[in-house]
Amino acid sequence: MSNNLFDFGMIGLGVMGRNLLLNTADHGFSVIGFDKDETKTAALEAAATDGTTVKGVPDLAHMVQQLQSPRKLMMLVPAGKPVDDVIESLLPLVEKGDVIIDGGNSHYTDTLRRVKYLREKGIHFMGVGVSGGEQGARTGPSIMPGGDVEAYGHVKPLLEAISAKVNGEPCVAYLGKEGAGHYVKMVHNGIEYAIMQLISEAYTLLKHAGLSNDELHETFKRWNEGALQSFLVEITADIFLQNDDKTSARLLDVISDKAGSKGTGKWTSQDSMELPVAVPVIDTAVAMRTISGYKDERVKASALYNESGASLTVSTEEWIKQVHDALYFATILSYAQGLAMLYQASKELAMDIPLPEVVSVWRGGCIIRSTLLETFTQAYKQSPDLSNILLDSGVASLVKSAESNTRAIVAQAALSGIPAAAFMSSLAYFDAYRTERMATNLIQAQRDYFGAHTYQRTDVSGSFHTEWNH
Ligand SMILES: NC(=O)C1=CN([C@@H]2O[C@H](COP(=O)(O)OP(=O)(O)OC[C@H]3O[C@@H](n4cnc5c(N)ncnc54)[C@H](OP(=O)(O)O)[C@@H]3O)[C@@H](O)[C@H]2O)C=CC1
Ligand SMILES: O=C(CO)[C@H](O)[C@H](O)COP(=O)(O)O
């Protein structure tokens, strides 16, 4: 700490801000934090590692005054109005050349607006995705910065120091212009939704085959030691063992089935349609969280449509292997759809998102980290401009190896009436994607029939219209 001035400031000392700031201090930076909730500010210093330089101040102006120039400030407050409120509070306090970072889950269009607004005032504003939850923020998250390259230069050493490391490489890289950091984080969360939905479907498929919580734990634990190794599979294995402290049940069995959400999955779906790019597994995951909220209607429909009629008679050992392969197949499809979306968005929105860096940064620290990301990193090393990871021959052989068991699972789920929409969606996407001539020529004919929309032919170029025989 030189001149008694601090290296880095944090606004918002909740789950993410507090932990990221303490992580920053652990890496030798002097840090100062502010939260509008004074109890959080007051608690900050006590939580710091001995020997680190951490200060909490109850006043934003005092915090800004104590920062080295150019000031480097991050906010980790809820997305939306709180971010604009913080910016307005900072404006009278900062100077030209200072760097303000929004590390929360802001919508990238808000980030674009804020970048422009602050650029006019000479202030650098960066949208930076941070993933890893509470633990990741404290010990090493995956960090997705985008925006002003000059501003990135000011914070690069700090972000590299606090990020997760894989094979000694920091899980942070410059991921593109303007709103790219928040765009990449949004799609990260879309993939997160898809994989979480798939895991929950694998859970129900295994439960219908009679697996107990202990057996589910063992199964997921074993899966996490192989091709499905990932953070989400790892924490799922733990979840099955957690006891409830209010009853004698396992906690999972007394948790309501209405799933919450904060919006990033929905934004991914919405934006995919704007581009357009097909991300049906993500769309399905968003829809399933929505249906999970229809509890009262589902109770009535369960009785009306005889849900208890759903039955499954399978060889348990074979079924576990098939569910494993289906989860592997559909997880690859989920990454493929998200990455295809980033590929398209990078071009359409002129963000220059480097996909090789994106998958590399996701290998550690983030919620969707998995061994598959190492495979994708190698694929992009060979072909950095892959429009879809499914076109890589190495990835194709992995997909093919799991295809027939995925078909078996989807068919059995349909026959047994077990909800497995994300598995079905991944297979439906795959079958369409690998079909050279789809049936959409008929849609073209229908559009021209009723609306004179014209069509293109396979043999001659140009647009054609036919007076169809009525
Ligand atoms: N939790 C997670 O796993 C992850 C969260 N994120 C994103 O990070 C951001 C922060 O999330 P999280 O830490 O979980 O949220 P929290 O609600 O835990 O913390 C946010 C903190 O910001 C404070 N705050 C709000 N407005 C202001 C303001 N104007 N000035 C100063 N402090 C303010 C809040 O105070 P008060 O409570 O009094 O309002 C609260 O203490 C969000 O955008 C979230 O989506 C990203 C990755 C993972
Ligand atoms: O960004 C995150 C993880 O990467 C946050 O935990 C986010 O809140 C998750 O989304 P949702 O609350 O909609 O499930």
Description:
It is a single chain. This protein is α/β, with parallel strands linked by helices and 470 residues long. Helix content is 54%, strand content 9%. The chain has 3 domains: 8-174, Rossmann fold, CATH 3.40.50.720; 185-433, N-(1-d-carboxylethyl)-l-norvaline Dehydrogenase, domain 2; 444-470, Up-down Bundle (Single alpha-helices involved in coiled-coils or other helix-helix interfaces), CATH 1.20.5. The protein is built from 19 helices and 11 strands. The longest helix has 33 residues, at 316-348. The chain is globular and about 80 Å long. The termini are far apart.
Key terms for this structure?
Rossmann fold; 6PGDH_C; 9% strand; N-(1-d-carboxylethyl)-l-norvaline Dehydrogenase, domain 2; alpha/beta; gluconate utilization; two-stranded antiparallel ribbon; NADP; binds ribulose-5-phosphate; 6PGDH_Gnd/GntZ; 7-stranded mixed beta sheet; binds NADPH dihydro-nicotinamide-adenine-dinucleotide phosphate; 470 residues; 54% helix
Provide the fold topology.
Layout: E1 8-11, H1 15-26, E2 31-34, H2 38-44, E3 54-56, H3 60-65, E4 72-75, H4 81-90, E5 99-102, H5 108-119, E6 124-131, H6 133-139, E7 142-146, H7 149-162, E8 165-166, E9 169-170, H8 180-208, H9 213-223, H10 231-241, H11 264-274, H12 280-292, H13 295-304, H14 316-348, H15 355-361, H16 372-382, H17 393-416, H18 421-433, H19 440-451, E10 455-456, E11 463-464
Parallel strand pairs: 1-2, 1-4, 2-3, 4-5, 5-6
Antiparallel strand pairs: 6-7, 8-9, 10-11
Bound molecules: NADPH dihydro-nicotinamide-adenine-dinucleotide phosphate and ribulose-5-phosphate.
GO molecular function, one term: phosphogluconate dehydrogenase (decarboxylating) activity
Function: Catalyzes the oxidative decarboxylation of 6-phosphogluconate to ribulose 5-phosphate and CO(2), with concomitant reduction of NADP to NADPH.
Domain 6-phosphogluconate dehydrogenase C-terminal: 181-469
